[in-house]
């Protein structure tokens, strides 16, 4: 059963996204927090967003928040830098595994890796509920 359109499922995804961002050390008061959270929601709705960061994702987030795509990119980058600085090595290993080096991930690497982590986590939880 595909629950991606289910409102309850989308609310669970939103909650999980916010929890992971907080665990990664992204302060909720940064605009980048909101932009990354919304980016993840969009990716859960359509994975193609991961491959069209500049052309689609930043533009759609900017429209949603009434700002410019370059502001979205910059705020996301700032939030990722803060997360990478504040995050424990254990959480980096949990979420990012071997997918990024010790350097700060790019916006697209961060969005993709977080998506795969959350999708795996939600799938595992769904399996346990069955």
Topology at a glance:
Layout: H1 7-23, H2 31-45, H3 53-65, H4 69-86, H5 89-96, H6 107-129
Task: Explain what you see.
The protein has 130 residues and is mainly alpha-helical. The protein has a single domain (7-129), classed as Orthogonal Bundle (Arc Repressor Mutant, subunit A), CATH 1.10.10. The protein contains six helices and no strands. Helix 2 (31-45) crosses helix 6 (107-129).
Main beta sheet: strand number and arrangement? none
- What share of the residues does DSSP label as strand, in percent? under 5%
Q: How many DSSP H or I helices?
A: 6
- Assign a percent range to the helix content: over 70%
Q: Look at the structure and name the CATH superfamily.
A: Winged helix-like DNA-binding domain superfamily/Winged helix DNA-binding domain
Question: Could you name the CATH topology?
Answer: Arc Repressor Mutant, subunit A
Which blocks of ≥5 consecutive residues have pLDDT under 50? none
Query: So what's the overall shape?
Result: globular
Give the H and E element order: HHHHHH
Q: Quickly name the level 1 CATH class.
A: Mainly Alpha
Radius of gyration: 14 Å
Query: In terms of structural class, how would the helical and strand content be classed?
Result: mainly alpha
Distance between the termini: 12 Å
Concise structural overview:
This protein is an all-alpha fold and 130 residues long. Helices cover 72% and strands 0% of the residues. It contains six helices and no strands.
């Amino acid at each position: 059963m595909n629950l991606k359109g289910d409102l309850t499922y989308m609310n669970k995804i939103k909650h999980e996204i916010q929890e992971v961002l907080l665990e990664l050390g992204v302060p909720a008061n940064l605009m980048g927090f909101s932009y990354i959270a919304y980016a993840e929601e969009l990716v859960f709705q359509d994975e193609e967003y991961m491959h069209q960061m500049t052309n689609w994702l930043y533009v759609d987030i900017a429209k949603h928040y009434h700002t410019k795509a370059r502001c979205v990119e910059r705020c996301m980058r700032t939030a990722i830098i803060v997360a990478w600085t504040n995050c424990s090595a254990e959480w980096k290993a949990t979420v990012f595994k071997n997918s990024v080096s010790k350097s700060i991930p790019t916006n697209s690497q961060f969005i993709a890796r977080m998506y795969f982590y959350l999708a795996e986590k939600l799938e595992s939880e769904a399996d346990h509920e069955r």
